[in-house]
Design a protein that fits this description.
Blueprint lengths: L5 H27 L6 H22 L7 H15 L5 H6 L2 H26 L3 H38 L13
Helix pairs in contact: 1-2, 1-6, 2-6, 3-5, 3-6, 5-6
C-alpha cells in the first residue's frame, strides 16, 4: 500500500468512509428508537465503528498498528480526526506510554460536544431514531474525512521519502 499513489488509495478510502458512515447511521436509527435508554449502547457501538474505521484507513494508507509506536500513531490519527491540535514535535518527544493517555483525554473532551448533541436528540424516542441516524452518519463521516487527511499527508510524506526520484505530483486537496 505504501507504493500506491493517492489516486488509487483515495477512492477506496472514500468508499470505506461512506460504508462506515452508512452503517453508523443505520445503527443510530435502530438504537435511537429506545431514546435515552439506548444512549449508552449507541455510544459503545459508535465508538467501535469509528475506531474500526480509523484502523481500516490506517492499513489502507500503509500504516500498521502492531507495535506501541504504531498504536500511538493510530491514537494520533484519532486525535486528528477529533480535531485535537497536537503538534508533531510534541508527539515525537513524548514516550508512547505518556502520550496515549493524554491523547485519549483530549479526544474525550473534544468528542464531548458531539455527544451532547446526541443527548438532546434522545429526549423523544421516536424522533430520536432519525436524529440518531443523522448524527451518527455525520459524526463518522466527518471523523473519517479528518483521519483520511491525516493519513494522506503521512502517506504522501512517506512516498516522497522512500521514492525521492519518483515524478509524482499531488492531486487536488481532499475535501
Amino acid at each position: 500500500m505504501v507504493l500506491l499513489g493517492p489516486e488509487i488509495v483515495n477512492p477506496i478510502a472514500f468508499g470505506t468512509i461512506s460504508g462506515a458512515a452508512k452503517f453508523a447511521g443505520i445503527e443510530g436509527m435502530g438504537l435511537g428508537l429506545g431514546g435515552l435508554l439506548s444512549f449508552v449502547p449507541d455510544m459503545g457501538a459508535l465508538a467501535a465503528i469509528t475506531m474500526r474505521l480509523l484502523q481500516k484507513l490506517s492499513l489502507l494508507y500503509g500504516f500498521e498498528y502492531a507495535t506501541e509506536d504504531e498504536m500511538a500513531d493510530l491514537w494520533l490519527a484519532a486525535a486528528s480526526a477529533a480535531g485535537v491540535d497536537l503538534a508533531r514535535d510534541f508527539v515525537e518527544k513524548q514516550a508512547a506510554e505518556h502520550l496515549v493517555p493524554r491523547m485519549v483525554d483530549a479526544i474525550a473532551m473534544k468528542a464531548g460536544a458531539d455527544i451532547a448533541e446526541k443527548w438532546a436528540a434522545r429526549l423523544v424516542p421516536v424522533l430520536s431514531a432519525g436524529a440518531g441516524a443523522a448524527v451518527n452518519y455525520f459524526f463518522v463521516r466527518s471523523w473519517g474525512r479528518r483521519a483520511q487527511k491525516h493519513f494522506l499527508t503521512r502517506h504522501i510524506a512517506r512516498i516522497a521519502q522512500e521514492l525521492p526520484t519518483a515524478r509524482w505530483t499531488p492531486p487536488a486537496a481532499v475535501s
